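TL;DR need structure tokens for one chain.
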Amino acid sequence: MNMISAPKGSRVPQVPIVSSISSLASGTDAWLVDIWGVMHNGVSPFPDAARACATFRKIGGTIMLLSNAPRPAASVVEQLQRIGVPDIAYDVILTSGDAARALIAEYAGKAVFHLGPDRDLALYEGTGVNLSELGAAAAIVCTGLFDDNTETPDDYADLLTSAYKLGLPMICANPDLMVERGGKKVWCAGGIAAAYEACGGAVAYAGKPYPPIYNLALEELSRLRGERVGIDRILAIGDGINTDIAGAGRAGIRSVFIASGVHVDGELDARGLDRLFAQASKRPAAAMTRLMW
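>> reply
TL;DR here they are.
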């Protein structure tokens, strides 16, 4: 384990920078691993991360890929196969889309407005809702931007103002603000939801860092392992400070921060980490430039 000492004047425990996850794996039964930014960048897989997860499984650990993808797990499996993340790297996938379906089902028999790309339409299957135009909807379900390659939340100012005037609640199926896709930062549903809240709209969130997805994760891990898995035996691994790390902290789970381009531009160092987590109520147990064994 390679560690960098705390900068002078630091009054809080410094987040150690490690080159291997192996020492942190000791004493854990399961990992909650973020996908985008840890296992791949939306275009290419990260082989070291896949090998680390496969190694942990070989020694008896369980890997749950815990994602803020706004789609059911089955569609994420297809994406992972397309990108090249091997099946041996994980046991199960749980997404914010899975968690969002319960919120959407509360509108069964009613119409909702879908705000997001067509690739997310599988989210509604079996929920009992109908899709409609904004003016006929009882709620908005936001899974992302219509075109995240070219748009930002600013492009939705008029739509969100209209939705607020109609009094429509929003379900955010992906709390991430941004992700890194092939080296480029793109906006996610969380950015739209934040803009809606800023203009007074009500938003219900599914996914990290909110409790429902962690409750589902604990239930599924216990089912997979055939016994209750204590939170002290779980390690969360992710690149999102306000989602992966904050959510794990709220759930009482130790975490490891992976320095993707979402939060770290350049070399990972102790002073940079101190700035990133200056306001954090609970800091990660360690930080890595990438997940590897």
